[in-house]
Amino acid sequence: MGGTFDPIHHGHLVAASEVASVFELDEVIFVPTGEPWQKVKGEVSAAEHRYLMTVIATAANPQFTVSRVDIDRPGPTFTIDTLRDLRRMRPDADLFFITGADAMAQIMSWKDNDELWDLAHFVGVTRPGHVLDNRGRKDVSLLEVPAMAISSTDCRKRVAEHNPVWYLVPDGVVQYIAKYGLYVQPGTDASAGIVPVTSRTE
Ligand SMILES: Nc1ncnc2c1ncn2[C@@H]1O[C@H](COP(=O)(O)OP(=O)(O)OP(=O)(O)O)[C@@H](O)[C@H]1O
Ligand SMILES: O=C(O)c1ccc[n+]([C@@H]2O[C@H](COP(=O)([O-])O)[C@@H](O)[C@H]2O)c1
């Protein structure tokens, strides 16, 4: 499941859990984006913060893992590259790519979208406020998941307005957001105090 995860919330986790159950997946790999080119630049938190929040949110579930492929690849994040990298790492795996209804609606604007379908089986999941459609592709599965009217945008706004995000995001993520002062002033890159994992050994 790819996402900007700024921050990761229970909508992401429920969708992943439901797809894993219905499709009997062995593992769900959460792949935080490096540079999400369709989101407003400068308004996305540092990749290391988003990566660490994703690790914290998924730590308790043995089926959930987090991949750095997108944040370690320089330049804009394209799913075609994500899937090619994952295929190289897991040559024998059947790959599924989970997307919410809003992302599915944009999928024809993604880079090399005509080549995506051969690299993974796409699963579109319902999301409150969005219409789920297979974009004319019969090979895309559509799945109704428990409705979680949560968005990262709303979580960021709530933090900025000093409203609680308890129970919208996992407890550890609430604490991480407070520890690093994320989202207090929207539009600022709160990367102070965090060392990218890739730089720690340099
Ligand atoms: N509440 C939800 N229910 C189902 N799918 C979701 C939900 N929230 C996000 N998704 C899906 O998870 C993936 C990653 O989403 P993303 O990290 O952009 O979160 P977001 O809440 O949409 O963020 P933002 O509000 O910043 O746009 C996308 O495919 C998106 O459609
Ligand atoms: O490949 C693309 O061009 C592309 C464009 C926009 C979004 N995506 C992917 O869609 C997933 C959800 O992205 P987002 O921006 O809604 O968090 C994530 O894995 C992104 O890399 C991919």
From TrEMBL:
EC main group: transferase
Pathway named in the protein's UniProt entry: Cofactor biosynthesis; NAD(+) biosynthesis; deamido-NAD(+) from nicotinate D-ribonucleotide: step 1/1
EC nos: 2.7.7.18
Keywords assigned: ATP-binding, NAD, Nucleotide-binding, Nucleotidyltransferase, Pyridine nucleotide biosynthesis, Transferase
Job description of the protein: Catalyzes the reversible adenylation of nicotinate mononucleotide (NaMN) to nicotinic acid adenine dinucleotide (NaAD).
NCBIfam families associated with the record: cyt_tran_rel, nicotinate (nicotinamide) nucleotide adenylyltransferase, PRK00071.1-3
Stated family: Belongs to the NadD family.
Protein name per its UniProtKB record: Probable nicotinate-nucleotide adenylyltransferase
Organism: Arthrobacter glacialis
Gene of this entry: nadD
